[in-house]
Design goal:
This protein is mainly α. The protein has two domains: 1-187, Serine Threonine Protein Phosphatase 5, Tetratricopeptide repeat; 188-255, no CATH class. 64% of the residues lie in helices and 0% in strands. The protein has ten helices and no strands. The longest helix has 22 residues, at 79-100. The protein is globular, with a radius of gyration of 19 Å.
Length: 255
């Protein structure tokens, strides 16, 4: 069952966690480091760490993640140009990491994220060429390292299938599958539950949507990062209102 959605793609993705390199199959040598940036997300902290990486020993995965974070927080008058520059640098850094280690799941995930952010900045219909490479990178990440960023690759694919129109590959059954998988890898992450609730709702599975949304709200309240709390709460209320409007009787009451 497929639905057209007009919302922006991929506004919801955050970056946390560490993925260590594995031993080389042929030579028994440790693969280059490929990890997420784990410091503060302020502009000053990101730029300071960027300078260290660019001028010293480079972990291209960490550098790609920093460029992604810089693109997210950029709000200068030349924001579009600056964001695009950071995203291009993110993609280049991720590709460098893949060249060093073709099994670096984090690198594929980061390359997909930055491609997705590029698509988001231009809108769905003007960035159709982004969809296939985004999906391909996330599918590779799912195979190599599905648990990174608390099920991030599955979460990304789940949202992609939810957002896309049917003619372009949108598929709620696929969306629900991937989001259920994301919960297996990140059961305590509220976004996994919230996005699954939205997909359940769009497929008229209202009782499941309400129960899953309730779990998302509980987990959200326990999240130490409350920087977007008002927006988050509004999204919860909007989805719950939509569920109740479609199914107000006891059959959709929370268990």
């Amino acid at each position: 069952m497929r639905f057209l959605k007009s919302y922006l793609l991929w506004p919801w993705l955050g970056i946390l966690g560490i993925l260590s390199g594995s031993l080389g199959a042929s030579w028994g040598l440790a693969q280059p480091s490929c990890q997420f940036y784990s410091g503060e997300k302020t502009l000053a902290a990101l730029q300071e760490r960027q300078a260290v990486l660019v001028n010293g020993d480079i972990d291209p995965c960490e550098l790609a993640n920093i460029y992604y974070q810089l693109a997210k927080i950029t709000s200068s008058p030349q924001a579009t140009v600056v964001k695009n520059h950071y995203l291009e640098q993110c993609i280049e850094s991720a590709e460098r990491a893949i060249q060093q280690n073709s099994r670096a799941g984090t690198a594929y995930f980061l390359r997909g994220l930055c491609l997705g952010r590029q698509g988001e900045s231009h809108g769905l219909w003007s960035s159709l060429k982004i969809i296939s490479p985004f999906r391909e990178n996330m599918e590779i990440a799912v195979k190599i390292a599905p648990g990174i960023d608390r099920g991030g690759p599955h979460r990304a694919l789940g949202r992609l299938y939810y957002k896309l129109p049917g003619l372009l590959g949108g598929d709620l059954e696929e969306s629900i599958y991937h989001l259920q998988q994301s919960i297996k890898f990140g059961p305590g992450y509220w976004k996994n539950h919230y996005f699954l609730a939205a997909s359940y709702f769009s497929w008229s599975r209202y009782a499941e949507a309400k129960n899953t949304l309730a779990q998302a709200m509980i987990l959200s309240a326990q999240d130490p990062d409350q920087s977007d709390a008002p927006e988050r709460q509004q999204n919860f209320e909007d989805l719950m209102d939509s569920i109740n409007a479609q199914c107000p009787d006891l059959s959709c009451s929370m268990n």
